[in-house]
Structures are given as structure tokens and as C-alpha cells.
Design brief:
With 284 residues, this protein is α/β, with parallel strands linked by helices. The protein is built from 8 helices and 9 strands.
Length: 284
């Protein structure tokens, strides 16, 4: 770890030599980009060797191709985070092939089908949502931390869990007031604090990046699918909750925040919930 923060010629947010696992490194099909893919690309641009993990292997492969086309280094792993064995395999494979894990980003979320009037859903859909949004986060945090504590350095690694303002506010119509999405993100926030406390003696840092109205593929598509919004109505709904009148945030802003949390510059930060929401939660 480089602590030469005072040097004028220091390269900021340098991830060179670091192996970064991004769980959710592919994305849904459709126009635009997802947070996970943007984080993969930006981490690679800052020198990281990126492991793009996704249930949809072709989507992860596409992320890898985008990175390698720019001269970066990346590999894809197929995994379903609702299964503990798949979560374990992500990190076993990374350790066996790359030899270490320096960073992990959990950028996975689903909104199961539900009834708009009652906010009800089948038990199967509820369970699957919790398994992906929360239980997968727990397993990936655990297995990533166990890898990182083997690095044998003062700061052995950094975990970034992507959460949502859905965990702290309630407003139907913006993917927010939906169980088990919101419940899963509440659990993710606590998993961050629990893991941060447990692995602090090993030098592992764990932080939550809590996103608000981000112009992402899943945010746009789920708003249209779940609430029957047109693309224009989605834009209007998101703009209504942003206090900073500069439009929605972009996935690249999410990615830069994640890269900061992965980099040495954030070495003194752990167990925190950082809101990137345009001020949407200023007044709750």
C-alpha cells in the first residue's frame, strides 16, 4: 500500500497490481450501462485486474471485451449469487488463478414481480429476492474477507457494497417501496457494518455506497416494467426526488465513488454508508 499522499507526482486512485472482483459485472440487455459494468471498466482504467462476475456469462464476457479492447486486464466468471456454493466458487477460482483478492464490489440487485396495489408477491419470488439482494452479499463479503486477510499487508483489501436509498426512505414508484428489494438493501447496510467490525483487525475495509436516482439500465427498465412508466415518466419521477437540480446521476459517478473506496486514498474509512443521491434523502 502506498502512503505517499503528499507527493506532487502521485497518481491518484491507482489500482495497479490489485485484483478487483466485481459481482454484477455484466448487466441487463438494453440501452445504456449498468453500475457494475461501469465500475469494472473504470477500475481497469485505473490499473486493476478485474474479475467480472455475473449470472449471465455472455454479459460478463462483453464487459471483459470492452476492457481488453482498451488494453486492460479482465476475466469473467459465471455465478448465481443466490447459491452459497457459487459465491464460494467466485473466490476459490480467483485465488487459484490470480493468487489474491484486493477488492470486491457487490453490485447485484433484483426486483421480483409483485402486485402494485398490495405490494404482495409469491413466497418463491420473495425468497429469491432476499437470497440475491442480501444473502448473496453476506456470502460474498465473508469469502472475500477471508481471501483478503491472507494478503499479509497493513491494508489487506477493500469491499464496496452497492446499496440504495430504498433502505432509508419510502416512496413507491422509484423501485423504493418494494419488498424484498428494500429489505435486502437494509440487510446489506448491516452486513457492511458487521463485516467491517469483524475484519478490521485484519486490515479489511468495508463500506456501503448508497445510490439514489442513477441513470442505469436496471433503474430505467424496472421503473417501466414494474410501474408502467414511459421513459419520459421515469425521468420526471426521478427528477422530482433530486434536490440538486442538475439531473440524475450517471453510472460513471457511481463508478468513481466505488474506485475511491477501493483505492488507498480511502484507507482510513470503514463501516460507512456514503450516499450518492443528489440530496434525495436530505428531507425524509
Amino acid at each position: 500500500m502506498s502512503l505517499d499522499f503528499h507527493r506532487r507526482d502521485r497518481k491518484a486512485l491507482d489500482l495497479s497490481g490489485k485484483v478487483i472482483v466485481v459481482v454484477g459485472g455484466g448487466q441487463q440487455s438494453g440501452p445504456g450501462m449498468g453500475n457494475g459494468r461501469a465500475i469494472c471498466i473504470l477500475a481497469a482504467r485505473h490499473g486493476a485486474e478485474v474479475i467480472a462476475v455475473d449470472r449471465n456469462l455472455p454479459a460478463a464476457d462483453e464487459t471483459v471485451e470492452m476492457i481488453t479492447a482498451e488494453g486492460g486486464s479482465a476475466y469473467a466468471i459465471e455465478a448465481d449469487v443466490s447459491r452459497e456454493a457459487d459465491c464460494q466458487r467466485i473466490f476459490d477460482t480467483t485465488m487459484n488463478t490470480r493468487g489474491r483478492v484486493d477488492g470486491m464490489v457487490y453490485s447485484v440487485a433484483i426486483n421480483p414481480p409483485f402486485d402494485r396495489e398490495s405490494n404482495a408477491m409469491t413466497v418463491e419470488n420473495f425468497d429469491h429476492g432476499i437470497n440475491v439482494n442480501m444473502l448473496g452479499c453476506y456470502h460474498c463479503n465473508l469469502f472475500a474477507s477471508q481471501c483478503m486477510e491472507k494478503n499479509g499487508e497493513d491494508t489487506n483489501g477493500s469491499i464496496v457494497n452497492i446499496s440504495s436509498i430504498a433502505s432509508v426512505t419510502h416512496q413507491l414508484g422509484l423501485n423504493i417501496g418494494i419488498m424484498p428489494y428494500a429489505l435486502g438493501k437494509c440487510g446489506l447496510n448491516y452486513i457492511t457494518e458487521l463485516t467491517a467490525a469483524q475484519y478490521a483487525p485484519a486490515g479489511v475495509r468495508v463500506n456501503t455506497l448508497m445510490l439514489g436516482p442513477i441513470d442505469s439500465v436496471i433503474g430505467n427498465q424496472d421503473s417501466q416494467k414494474l410501474f408502467g412508466y414511459t421513459p419520459g415518466e421515469v425521468e420526471d419521477a426521478y427528477h422530482d426526488v433530486v434536490k440538486l437540480k442538475m439531473g440524475r446521476g450517471s453510472v460513471w459517478e457511481s463508478a468513481y465513488a466505488a474506485v475511491y473506496l477501493l483505492a488507498d486514498e480511502s484507507r482510513f474509512m470503514t463501516g460507512q454508508q456514503i450516499r450518492l443521491d443528489g440530496g434525495a434523502t436530505l428531507m425524509r
